[in-house]
Design goal:
By secondary structure, this protein is mainly β. The relative contact order is 0.25.
Amino acid sequence: MKTTIQLIKRVNNTEIGAGNTNEFYILVPTELDVSDMMNLDEECEFICRKNPEQRYKFRYTYGREKRIVGMGDFYRDNSIEAGDEVILEYSIDDLSNKHYMVDYKKNDKSIVLQRFKDGFEVL
């Protein structure tokens, strides 16, 4: 029996490195447990679903925030923008082989508002 777990996240300016930091990550909501997908501080190689030649190493960290880090090359290679959805997928096949895939969905026809201290910003 195949098991599949997905994390789907609409990324914002800060996560794609367009904010005040130069960091590229996925912020994992505090209440979400991703330990079934990735072990803490373990680097996992993800294959891009749209271009299987592209492979990326991501790592799950937990400090002040839960983050999946190492997303910069993936974001740049695929022109990920604020409001796009990033999909991380982990599956185990019938032979207990683990597979990690990364995909994205462009949201070109939407307006995304991000809250900041004094109001909202159009992304």
